[in-house]
Amino acid sequence: MLSGKNILIGISGGIAAYKICELIRMFKRQNANVRVICTPNALNFVTKLTLQNLSQNEVGIQEFDVADFKPEHISYADEADIMIIAPATANTISKIATGICDNLLTSVVCAFKKPVIIAPAMNCNMLDNPVIQGNLKKLASLGYKILEPESGFLACGYEGKGRLCSLEKILEEAAAILNSTGTKKKYVITAGGTVEDIDPVRYISNYSSGKMGIALADEAFFQGNDVVLISTVDVKRPYKVIKVKSAQDMQNAVNEEFETADCIIMAAAVADYRVKTKSDQKIKKTNDDSLTLELIKNPDILKGLCERKKEEMLKQVKHDRIIVGFCAESENLLENAREKIQKKGCDFLIANDISRKDIGFSSDYNEVTILDKTGGIKKLERASKNEIAREILKEINE
Questions:
Q1: Active-site pick, 156, 165, 263, 327
Q2: Are 264 and 254 in contact (CB under 8 A)?
């Protein structure tokens, strides 16, 4: 998968540094060329000689070890196809996020214009620190790929989240980025729960956090595609984000992007109904024990898109556009999903079981069933939403 690719691995000073020896071997078995940069503190956990023997390349440590006319940090940045920082400590993460370049590793990252994967590993309390969380979110918004740490027993004696993610995950992520076809597609992806105003202070909405749609947009972007995220959730990303509020707002935004989209994924939870007459002033409480609101149906955005695609097919225009719907069910998941995909006419439908508390709304994890228009069914077992997103994209593009 990675034959001839140039992999640059940056190792910072954490106990998980010893694991990177095996990661280097994994890349070498894929016939990749591996170069390594260490922070000085990383050498407290793994030796330079070991890394040189495994990578079969000189290991970079000092900022001004200039072998030729080109500054070393620029040379490393120019030669590599991808950079992986693992383990990434709180110190190194914070330096990268704030543009501090006080060692060779951070200087190279600053000059690096190609994909960067960051795999944090640290004490769980350090990871939970709002400053570190803020820096990780900042890096993600700038286009860095953050691989979430895993939970378990930590070297410091604590039990919690902070372990370096699996080496297989790092390898797979690098391979997915480097083996993207190079043929860009335009993905239009919706996320979040729509908001339907009742009056200036009240509204009708749902529990959707938007995490699944955002994960899909992130993965599509990291695979080298053009992405437009239409979201009810405020989010900063390196790709185009259109902030919307109501179902009608979302419909207008999706329709604007439809003509140039290769794939539309309706991951948002769109309200089925809205208030017929929104009050311009706050509705005051009265002596009555009840209040009646008259609701009317919102536009069925997914069905409308599928009808537009059908019209295109009849005119022999844009045959290859893919439309993906989502459904959230609390009972009879497959039965309701089968009925919905037939009713809507989409190419794929992603069915979510919202009765479970360990997946779905507000969770970082999900478990879904993918249905296609030919009757095929594939279940994706519980995993992080980023992993689920990657598998969904793989399935709909096969």
A1: 156
A2: yes
